[in-house]
Write a structure and sequence with these properties.
Elements: H1 7-20, E1 34-36, H2 37-40, E2 58-61, H3 64-69, H4 75-82, E3 86-89, E4 96-99, E5 108-112, E6 115-116, E7 137-142, H5 146-149, E8 156-161, E9 170-180, E10 184-194, E11 198-209, E12 214-216, E13 222-224, E14 230-242, E15 253-268, E16 279-296, E17 300-316, E18 324-340, E19 351-367, E20 374-388, E21 394-405, E22 408-409, E23 413-426, E24 430-445, H6 449-453, E25 465-480, E26 491-514, E27 518-541, E28 544-561, E29 580-590, E30 593-602, E31 605-606, E32 614-615, E33 618-631, E34 634-643, E35 651-653, E36 656-657, E37 662-672
Parallel strand pairs: 5-8
Antiparallel strand pairs: 1-2, 2-7, 3-4, 5-6, 7-8, 9-10, 9-37, 10-11, 11-14, 12-13, 14-15, 15-16, 16-17, 17-18, 18-19, 19-20, 20-21, 21-22, 21-23, 23-24, 24-25, 25-26, 26-27, 27-28, 28-29, 29-30, 30-33, 31-32, 33-34, 34-37, 35-36
Length: 673
């Protein structure tokens, strides 16, 4: 019999820790995009303390130059072209979801400053509604981190962070206007004011488009997309206050508040099997985050955060299905206490740090596709330990989580990982490093409210998904002249090669099946395994810089057993999990000019569980050009993009045409310092 935990007992535990604790790890700054988690995060991006307790995990941070090139586009477009994560895009103005290493969309987490923002009414996060320009740091965490981040983090996580305040004097305003093919119009505002006590920031955007793209139908006739208009707007307001008059840098005693509002009004064009469409969808959200932290000396940090999110979705078919309205309420809170066990001022054999977490998550959904209001209440207790040698050559971590869902306990979730720098050579002429890593996690995913109660078709008899995830890999870096002062040597060379092997066995995998009415079922077991590589080369010759990056992914995600009678899925690839995909970038920088060529490849995607239907592979080419001019405190930046250069006709999802060739232009004007 599973034990029940009364919710008030858990709340009392949180209050006790918050009131009785007595009193950031600085991370080394690296330019490598893929590295062991402990050395990957820059100081200003560590907004989630849990990131520092996951030794051996593979994380890719989107470099600033690429993030800026895509700032008027969605995170879905950015990830599709710059990471091996498969973006399952349902066509123009439709949903786009994440698939990590052959995992389902529901097994992928999206975190905003550490707060999960998965939509419980859909059971997934729609990354087409996330604007790249709203965030300072975008990173991808590969593999499970359930012990630290909780249920649902099976395949990986997308982390969207806004930079911490450092309370140095800054006053900046950036205004961007943009235009593009098919009636595209963009406008963004990014402003920040900061002194030794306050940081006030606002990021706002507006977007509109007709999206009347050409496409080819089943008869090879060239058609024009109808009912595809888009209007969207919103922004993030943030305020940080330094409570410690004698401290600067943002690491002492501070309180922060963020408010994220946005609304998307989308017309949804017809699929290839439809004659026409008058479907529309409106997505509106209001997300808030209040956080506080207090640091005592160099050993103790206490923090707390609370987030209240409200989302509204209205889908109108107008012909076949009735209108569908969903209202979602989510509350998340987390209290954490980090304590360094050894004294930093004393000689020691290594650094020992623990983190105690008390997270709580509540979600409630009311909608036309639900027979009543349904909710989930998920408190948890987690503890993590991190060890590192004084020279950071060895790093190891262990974490353990106990979670409850509506009063019933789920299995204990342990996680362990380590990274060891086998070779480290550093001198003024060159540097060389070779690091190995490994990680193992138990993972668990509770069925979403959508999977349990969707009407018609929900399945209240679903079992939770559970299993184990292992991954291992290495990172090799080599550079020449990179450590020499620029006045002595203006040339440089750096090469990074990373490889990762992963293995995942999940029992009771949840998959939707059906015809007129779709229903989720448990597949007995799914085995995912594969290899990912990331290779980067940079060459600097005075003012000329050359960039080359190639990322590849090979994923086998197959059904090993099934509860369904006469099921033909055994040994077959899971639908919409491409075996092969990859991306390449070739860039050239000359002073203030940046030219980048991007090429992506996506392999076969099977549409059915028996591999009887599939979509053809496709390759896409894109080019981006940006030029910046700085005059005293003024910045002018112009950029242009040509997407899908070869005008390919392709589909990511069955019978959902994607845009052919199109262009984007933008002009940014900034003032301040």
């Amino acid at each position: 019999m599973k034990k029940k935990l009364h919710p008030y007992i858990f709340l009392l535990l949180q209050v006790f820790l918050f009131s009785s604790a007595p009193g950031i790890l600085r991370a080394q700054s690296l330019q490598d995009t893929l590295e062991v988690i402990d050395v990957f995060f820059r100081k200003d991006s560590v907004t989630d303390q849990r990131n520092l307790f996951a030794a051996g995990q593979q994380v890719q941070q989107i470099e600033d130059r690429y993030r800026d090139l895509y700032r008027t586009q969605s995170v879905a477009e950015l990830l599709a072209q710059q990471t091996p994560v498969f973006i399952k895009a349902y066509g123009i103005n439709s949903m786009a979801t994440l698939s990590f290493r052959g995992a389902s969309a529901a097994q992928s987490a999206v975190l905003w400053n550490g707060v999960p923002i998965l939509n419980p009414a859909l059971g997934v996060a729609d990354v087409s509604l996330l604007g790249t320009g709203l965030f300072d740091n975008i990173s991808v965490r590969y593999g499970s981190s359930a012990a630290l981040f909780g249920s649902g983090n099976v395949g990986g996580a997308l982390q969207l962070d806004n930079a911490k305040a450092d309370f140095t004097k800054v006053a900046k305003v950036n205004i961007l206007t943009g235009a593009g093919s098919y009636g595209r119009r963009d406008a963004t505002l990014n402003t920040i004011f900061q002194n030794e006590r306050w940081k006030i920031g606002l990021r706002a955007f507006y977007q509109a488009a007709k999206n009347d793209f050409p496409y080819t139908d089943h008869k090879d006739s060239l058609m024009v997309t109808e009912n595809a208009g888009l209007k969207a707007g919103g922004g993030i307001f943030s305020a940080d206050y330094n409570l410690d008059k004698n401290s600067s840098g943002g690491d002492g005693h501070l309180i922060s508040f963020k408010l994220w509002m946005q609304q998307y009004s989308r017309q949804i064009p017809a699929a290839l099997f439809e004659q026409s469409s008058v479907k529309t969808q409106k997505d509106a959200s209001l997300r808030s985050l209040l956080s506080w932290q207090r640091k005592w000396t160099n050993r103790t940090l206490l923090y707390a955060k609370a987030s209240l999110n409200r989302e509204f979705l209205r889908y109108e078919d107008g012909v076949v299905l009735p209108d569908n309205k969903n209202t979602i309420s989510q509350y998340y809170q987390e209290i954490g206490w980090k304590w360094r066990l050894d004294d930093p001022a004393a000689a020691a054999m290594g650094k020992h740090t623990i983190l105690v977490l008390l997270p709580l998550q509540y979600a409630a959904v009311k909608g036309d596709n639900l027979d009543s209001i349904h909710s989930q209440f998920r408190p948890a207790i987690a503890i993590a330990y991190n060890f590192s040698t004084d020279n950071d050559r060895l790093k190891a971590s262990f974490s353990l989580r106990q979670e409850w869902a509506n009063g019933r306990s789920v299995p204990l979730l342990p996680g362990v990982g380590a990274a060891y720098n086998l070779v480290s050579m550093n001198n003024p002429l060159s540097s060389f490093s070779f690091t190995i890593r490994a990680n193992a996690q138990r993972t668990y995913r509770i069925p979403t409210l959508n999977e349990l109660y969707y009407f018609p078709g929900g399945n209240e008899g679903l079992k939770p998904e559970q299993g184990w995830v292992q991954d291992a890999g290495y990172t090799l870096t080599w550079s020449l002249f990179k450590n020499m002062p620029r006045a002595e040597h203006k040339s440089g060379f750096s090469f990074t090669h990373d490889a990762a092997l992963f293995n995942r066995n999940i029992k009771d995998w949840i998959y939707w099946l059906g015809g007129a009415i779709w229903t989720p079922h448990n597949i007995a077991e799914v085995h995912s395994r594969g290899l990912e590589t990331d290779n980067r080369l940079e060459i600097a010759l005075s003012r000329l810089k050359l960039y080359l990056s190639v990322r590849t992914a090979y994923v086998l995600s197959t059904s090993e057993a099934s509860y369904l009678p006469d099921d033909k899925s055994k040994g077959k690839q899971i639908p919409y999990a491409p075996r092969y995909n990859g991306q390449a970038n070739i860039g050239l920088g000359l002073g203030s000019l940046l030219v980048n060529y991007n090429h992506t490849y996506t392999g076969y995607r099977f549409v059915t569980i028996d591999e009887s239907q599939y979509l053809q592979p496709y390759s896409l080419a894109n080019i981006q050009i940006a030029y910046s001019l700085i005059i005293k405190d003024y910045l002018i930046q112009a950029s242009a993009q040509l997407q899908n250069i070869w005008n390919k006709d392709y589909k990511v999802v069955w019978d959902r045409p994607m845009p052919r060739r199109y262009m984007l232009f933008s002009l940014l004007f900034g003032i301040g310092k």
